[in-house]
Structure formats: C-alpha cells, structure tokens
Sequence to fold (421 residues):
Amino acid sequence: MKKGNVLVGQSGGPTAVINSSLAGVFKTAMERGYNKVYGMRYGIQGFMDEQYIDMSDHIKNELDLELLKRTPSAFLGTCRYKLPEIHENKEVYERIFELLDKLDIEVFVYIGGNDSMDTIRKLFDYSLLTGAKQKFVGCPKTIDNDLAITDHTPGFGSAAKYIATSTKEIIRDAMGFSYKKKNVTIVEIMGRNAGWLTGAAGLSRSEDCEGPDLIYLPEVPFNIQGFVGKVKELLEKKDVVVAVVSEGIKTEEGKYVCEYTAGSNTRDAFGHIQMTGTASYLANVIQGELGCKTRAVELSTLQRAASHLASKIDVDEAYNVGGATVKAADEGSSGVMVVIDRVSDDPYQSATGVYDVHRIANDEKVVPRKWINKNGDYVTEEFLDYVRPLIQGHYSPMMVEGLPRHLNLSMHNYDWISSKK
Fold:
C-alpha cells in the first residue's frame, strides 16, 4: 500500500543539534517508504499560512544530511505560537487539518520543548474528536533539559559542553588580571525555572581548573545580600571570584532578580517574561557595595548555537530520536513523545521509547533539591555524574576556508564545492 507524506516542524528556541533530529526524521521517513517529507517554515504558525517546503529539494544525498546535522539554529525556521484550546477557536484547527489533508499528511512531527508538546497534545485531541487519519508525535528538543519523563533532552548535552568549556576559559581570563587586583566575574546562564544548564558549569572543575566559586540555580531562593556576603568572604581569601547564576534566579518573595533591571516587562505568546540582565545587576551591586572590579558575562544565544562544540553523544541521540518519531507513528503510535531512557552510565548507553504526551506537555522537570548542596550555592557530584556522559565526544565541523560550513535554504548546496575545483 502506497504511503502518504510526513510533515515536520521546529518550534521554540533552537539548539546546536535540532537539525540532527530533522535529518533523522527525513532519513527514516524515506527508508520507511513515505512519499514526501514536507518541512513547515516557521513552525505551525507558518504552516497555517501555507509556508512549507519539500525537504527533498534541499537534501539530495548523504553529504547534505551530514551538513544538516552540523548546522545550528532551526533549518526550517521556528516560532513561539500558542495554539488556542479547541473550544476557544475551532477554526484554527479546521484550517490546520484542511492543509494536512491537502498535502496527504499521514505523520505530523513537531520538534520542540514543553510548549511544542502542548501543540502535539492539542492536535492529537482534535484528531480524536474528528476521526482524522494523521498520527501526531513529539520529538524532544530543549537545551533547558526540563521535559518530564525523558532522562534528558537532545540539545542539553551540547549546551552543557559549551557552558563548561566557556566557564573554564572565563576563569582563566579572570586569573590573568588578578595581580594586586580583586575582581569578580558573574556568568549568566539560560534557565528560567530549571537550573540544569547552570549546574553544568560545575563540570569545569578539573585537574587544570578549580571551577566556579559559586553556582546558583533557580530551584533555591536567592538572597541578594547573602550573595554579597559570600563574595566578600571569598575575596578575603583570594583575588579572583567567579560566580555562575541562572537567568531565572528569584528571591524568597518569588521575584526574578532580572526584574530589578529595565526591559523585563516583555512577554512571549506563552506569558514567559523576557529574561536578561541578571548578571549585570548583580555585578553592579557587588561593585557598589564592595568596590572591586566586576564583570558580567551573558552567554545568551551562544549556548544554543555552538554547533562547532557539539557533543557526539548529543548529535547521535538527536538523530536517533528524530528517526524514532517516524518509527513510532509508522507502527501506530499517536499523541506521544519520544523519550530517552538511560540504560547504563559506564559505559554510557541509552535507548528510545514513547510516552503519552499528556503526561509531558506543560510539566516542567527541575533539578532535584538533593542534587544541590545544603547552602544552595553549588551542585553535587551526583548532578555532575548525571551530566558528564552527555558531553562526551565531538562532531568535527566541515570546514571551508577556516570556518564551519552549514546547510542553508537560500544557497545552492554545492556552490562551495565547485568553487574549490
């Protein structure tokens, strides 16, 4: 029996390996005999405006797949669009399913995090109401590592690797300016309510690096004056202090520290506050109260874009998870998300499974309190043991004239090869 088509989209903040999952979806769909793989341009929001491409026009062979796996950001484009509840706007769903039927879509794959799994949940629920033929499967993606059920999420390992590496380099930089000078560096890491990424900075502690002095996660209330006091104590013993903080640390009253700065009133479609300026605010407080030299470092989007430092474990798992979404739908599953199960730590091994998306959507996995030390200013060895296997290995970029080459929708894939002949 001839199969129909697969539709895949990317949503939310990208990662260094999000396109590896896209490559896995495409490859597996072709191997399983689907006719075409369509890619949504700018997620479900773009799809409703009939913005989509035939992936076969851009992926011709294995070289294209390998380039795609090494390309950061969302190849198809992304969005932050919140689908309304079915009873609130049925016309939106009618529009989506009209387009799905028009393109003869059998499998709908959405690569994303919590909010994207909410989209899968709603589309699946509508398909049950209408008896639609499509299968809906979520492909996990988020550097925040805050999706429930799955052991970890594709994208987290590479971001953790970048953060730990950058922390080592920041510490060495600060040490170079320590002669007869006291200096404090505060590094701000992404993480609204979950501190997985921030905790990964602790991996920098090794034979050649003492690691950061303090690590603060949003899971534990943050006391600003208490922080100043700890920094003061450390400066009495050493010249260089490096503290790492989550962008989402908040006081005991529940106020984000970034809310003390300007520009924190902006919110996205899901009501999330725009977070920025936490490190800058704390650096100003330290400088004002202790009078020492301070520097604020905000890694910002670099954490999710550094494909040149991607973990091989992460790239491979992202690819396998993408393929597993198509397999799950092909074998009859719908309304599920693919999850990663950790089979072994030494040697590290993982496997994929599927889980009801209703148990995952809008549920946020935070760092267990037992993985944060008693004082709330560092992570435990158990936390580091959990993260360390996920940063192993390296995927070498395809270098052209000293820079990594990426797959781009707007360029002819082989112009750069033919120009070298």
